[in-house]
Structures are given as C-alpha cells and as structure tokens.
Design brief:
The protein has 2 helices and 5 strands. It is α+β, with helices and mostly antiparallel strands and 86 residues long. The chain has a 5-stranded antiparallel sheet with strand order 1-5-4-3-2, with helices on one face. The model has no long low-confidence stretch (mean pLDDT 91).
C-alpha cells in the first residue's frame, strides 16, 4: 500500500528541489514530477509572506511510495533542503 507524505520547504526553488531528488536516485519525468525505483515526488511552489515585506518561495513536495522507502528519502531530502533554504 502506498503512503503519501507532504512536506514544505522555504527558501529553495523547484529547480533545486528537483536536482536534490535526482541526486537521491530519481529521474525527472515531467516538469514537476521526479520518480525513483519505488517512489514518486510531485512538486509545487508558491510565494509566501514572511513578515510585513519579505516573501520567500515555499516548495511543497508530495512523496508517494512504500513507507519504509519514503522515511529515509524524505529525511535525506530534508537535510539537503535545510542546508540550502530555511
């Protein structure tokens, strides 16, 4: 049974998120989707306000796959994203 986990990351671009996912073994199959052997990640992004005048890009990644595959994948991705963004 597939599990779906959704995580949001601020301060990184979709382009950078896709690069991280391909570095983790995925292949970009559409403009906003990366697939690995037993997982799929779909990305979306929007500008979010931080304080009265600052906006950051927030990238949301929806991971789908087996739970035992997703947990380490999401953790590795989050570590990369935290170093780049905030």
């Amino acid at each position: 049974m597939a599990t779906r986990l959704e995580r949001s990351f601020r301060g990184i671009s979709e382009r950078l998120a896709i690069r991280y996912l391909t570095n983790l073994g995925g292949e970009q199959v559409t403009e906003d989707t990366v697939e690995g052997d037993d997982w799929t990640a779909t990305l979306s992004s929007e500008k979010v306000g931080v304080g009265p005048s600052l906006q950051l890009t927030e990238v949301t990644v929806a991971f789908e796959g087996a739970e035992d595959t997703l947990e380490p994948l999401v953790e590795q991705f989050a570590q990369k994203a935290m170093r780049a963004g905030g």
